[in-house]
Specification:
CATH class: Mainly Beta
Largest sheet: 6 strands, mixed
Number of helices: 1
CATH superfamily: Transthyretin/hydroxyisourate hydrolase domain
Strand content: 35-45%
Number of domains: 1
InterPro entries: Hydroxyisourate_hydrolase, Thyroxine_BS, Transthyretin/HIU_hydrolase_d, Transthyretin/HIU_hydrolase_sf
Radius of gyration: 17 Å
Enzyme class: hydrolase
Oligomer: single chain
Function: Catalyzes the hydrolysis of 5-hydroxyisourate (HIU) to 2-oxo-4-hydroxy-4-carboxy-5-ureidoimidazoline (OHCU).
Family: Belongs to the transthyretin family. 5-hydroxyisourate hydrolase subfamily.
CATH architecture: Sandwich
EC number: 3.5.2.17
């Protein structure tokens, strides 16, 4: 049993369209001490080569809700540009942009518990879950 008075959060991103970690995605962490409280931006990080954010800020004491904001548009735009450069003959029908430019995940936390929240991502959908 943990004796910590704050919760902790970690995340990683898997690009399910290629079966690999999503590197270089900016992730912002916010928290609030109750449903009616204002969000407090705590800072952020970016995913490493394994798709993990290893240096997200600590949560303040009294945190009851957490929000992770994933900026996925730059990741997909870079991926599209790399694909067109590598194989211009295999371009799709000219579609540009990103269907989900941002992903915001909000969840409740309890003091002393760790919350690992992975993001499974592809160009036209995403899924999250509480991991371990």
């Amino acid at each position: 049993m943990s004796t910590s008075t704050t919760a902790s959060v970690s995340t990683h991103i898997l690009d399910t369209s290629v079966g690999r970690p999503a590197q270089g995605v900016a992730v912002q962490l916010s928290a609030r001490p109750g449903r009616e409280a204002d969000w407090q931006a705590l800072g952020g990080s970016a995913t490493d080569a394994d798709g993990r954010c290893k240096d997200l800020p600590a949560l303040p004491e009294g945190t009851t809700h957490v929000r992770l904001d994933f900026e996925v548009e730059p990741y997909f735009l870079k991926k599209q540009a790399d694909a067109q450069q590598d194989a211009p003959a295999n371009r799709d029908s000219g579609a540009t942009g990103v269907f989900f430019p941002e992903v915001a995940i909000t969840f409740a936390v309890n003091p002393g518990e760790h919350y690992h929240v992975p993001l499974l991502l592809n160009p036209f959908g995403y899924s999250v879950y509480r991991g371990s």
